[in-house]
Amino acid sequence: MKTAMKALINKDLKAITKNKQLFASIIVVPLIMGVFLPLLFVVIFHFVPDEMGDLQPLLNLLPAKGIKDGQTMVLSLLINYLMPGFFLMIPLMAASVMAASAFVSEKEKSTLETLLLSPLSLREIFTAKVLSAFILSMLVSLATFLLMTLAFETAVYLLMGRLVALHFSWVLILLLVGPAVSLLAITLIVRTSAKSQTAMEAQQRSVFLILPLLLLVIGQLTGVMLLDAWMLLGLGIVLGAIAYVLMWGAVKKITYEKLMGI
Amino acid sequence: MHAIITTGLGKTYPGGKEALKDLSLQLDEGEVFGFLGPNGAGKTTAVKLLTGMLNPTAGSALVMGHDPEKDPERVHALCGVVTENARMYDHLSGLENLMFYGALYGQNSFESRERADMLLAGLALHDAKDKKLGAYSTGMRQKLSFARALMHRPRMLFLDEPTSGMDPESGIKVNQMITRLAKEEGVTVFLCTHQLRYAQDICTRFGLISEGAMLMTGTLPELQNAVLPGIRVRIRADKLPAGLPLQEAGNGVFEGSLGEEGEVADLVRKIVLQGGDLYRVEVEKPSLEEIYFALTRNREAAK
């Protein structure tokens, strides 16, 4: 990769950490979704286990093999089947905030034209911007995953004296579904960035992507379906393919005039 | 090689507004070309077409041998551009901004630091180099934009109102730098401004544009001869012999137009030989401003 593209990616990543408001919004959601929520589940389950009765339909769907007791089964259900739906909101949110900042903020603050006047081609600028949003989103996801695992296992160990095994599906979430969701969010922001006048407006558009994720969570809770590794694999491939096709379509149509809203 | 060649270049925006009509131009390397006209005349559109930010709807252009429509990156690598809409990052310092743009042109941090330091010192911005751009005044921002455009030692500069918002001292510094770059390094300058007096001081050739159409191009003497030939003379004397082509303007001052400078000597001789006392003789050629207004008046009349 050209040094110029690296410089652009570096600049975008640094800009997000220097902007306190944006940085806070990138940190808060992962902390709530990835740390606070699983801890809350564990604590409720430990102190008022009856409240978890609502999970019964989902428990019925679980393959019982290998799990010794009911308590571990519920905890495994929490971390391996319920959490992924919430967790996927993290790459979605981080990628949206970063992409909106990287594409629309430059236009909003009139720095886009200066960038377009550089010797980087439009495609290189576009790629650098997509990559910076993607890298940030992946970093935030990975950090949240580590924090989540640490917080969950520590709480479970301290309260119930045991550890709960994480399923292989987390590998798929981190390496396939998460990246696909994040690419999809970036694509959506990029495709509408010419129409959005402010970064806030662009972010608001991406909120709609949360709806399918919420359906996924609700679907699990009500026992309609169980998100197993095969489903995640399929979901990741389909989302990734959609993101790729949409992104490629956006790259092909990009022109200086369109970017500047003429 | 010509720095810029345009042939029938035109741009009509999607809304139907014809911002630039049939622009045909040739600029030699090392020229400081003043592209002059009021706001909305089409100057910025021309710069955007020449830097590939807009695609022409008519004609074509070559900048330093490259077509900005097909090869914008190559044009960008050779050109520095200062326009009102090309801003820098408020959250970065002056030095950080310059180093970032240096990196976009492939400079390593050592090269970009050295170049930025030199430009900042040359433009009297060195004391403010670590201040965030957000804290810069309009004039300082404009100077930093100028420095930014020079980071990669461009062969061609597009400057759209480069000294707007600057204090007079900074304006002079920038003008000196423009003149030096053109003379010593052969950099071609395409300077857009509505301040005709300013342009008259630093440009070597001019293009006068109005409502998207080029009215005339040429050096100042060429424009003067074509549009308002002759010279204006103003004389203060105690008395004037009859029959001279001068009219009294009050306070013993007489004004009139002459065909060429040689006629001034004749005029002075006649006054002195007939016993008149001369206190002052001023000879003036029409300014760029007067030429521009005469041209637009002619155009209006022709309509």
How would you sum up this structure in a few lines?
Chain A is mostly helical and 262 residues long. Chain A has twelve helices and no strands.
Could you characterize the architecture of this molecule?
Chain A has 262 residues and is mainly alpha-helical. Chain A has one domain. In chain A, 79% of the residues lie in helices and 0% in strands. Chain A is built from twelve helices and no strands. Chain A has helices at residues 3-18, 20-47, 56-61, 70-87, 89-108, 112-116, 122-160, 169-193, 199-206, 210-221, 229-253, 256-259. The two termini of chain A are 30 Å apart. In chain A, 41% of the residues are buried. The mean pLDDT of chain A is 84. Chain B has two domains: 2-224, Rossmann fold; 229-285, no CATH class. In chain B, the strands form three sheets. Chain B has a six-stranded mixed sheet, sandwiched between helices. Chain B has a four-stranded antiparallel sheet with strand order 11-12-10-13, covered by helices on one side. The relative contact order of chain B is 0.13. Chains A and B meet through helix 1 and helix 6 of A and helix 2 and helix 3 of B.
